[in-house]
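Contributing new records

If you add data, match the layout below exactly. Sequence lines come first and carry their own label; structure lines follow with theirs. Keep one chain per record. Anything else will be rejected by the validation script.
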Amino acid sequence: MSTAPHPAVLVLPHDPDWPRRAAALTADLRAALGPAAVRVEHIGSTAVPGLAAKPVLDVQIGVADLDAAERDFDGPLAALGFRRSPHRHDHVPAGSDDDPARWAKRLWLRRDPAAGPDCNLHVRLLGSPNERLALLFRDWFRAHPEAVPGYARFKQLLAGAVADLDTYADVKDPVVDLVTAVAEPWAAATGWTPGGGRLADRLAELRDSPLESAGLRADAARRLAG
């Protein structure tokens, strides 16, 4: 029997079943949270074909009001095995003078095999820079498969070199910043927007959804379009 220590951070080769599990989970989340979950997306490395990743799905929900989401989502998410984390802000990219308040979020975690696949559930404000960045990062890698092996190898080496997940995240953040610096010109050149071709469909869903007020519906639509 091997006595080699288990790594503090586990990065596995890409599992082709991750997208299927994420699709089932996003459907469950839409059903549980209703129209307040305006945009529900599989994000992160498990959403990129061929990319090595921690065996934890990342899902992002775009909402019109973070405080309302924090209040209203706890119960339905608890029923799905999620617990809210105290983490309330994302990393602001290096070199940016953006107000950190614009990078606010709410985070729920699931680590209960009986409830479903492990998941980090990021709830962010529609149109916020952190909501946009998560989608841009995913879509740039999907459009540039030649970049996937190098980033995968970096993550695998990093996972074997650090003692804990916090250090892994701290070292990885500047590399994500480098990817963002390359992805932004690509987004400008291609006309990329968050949501891509699904934008019109989601706006139509908003128009038909029973939100509490026309003002909230208009605000959500404005954020989604931005």
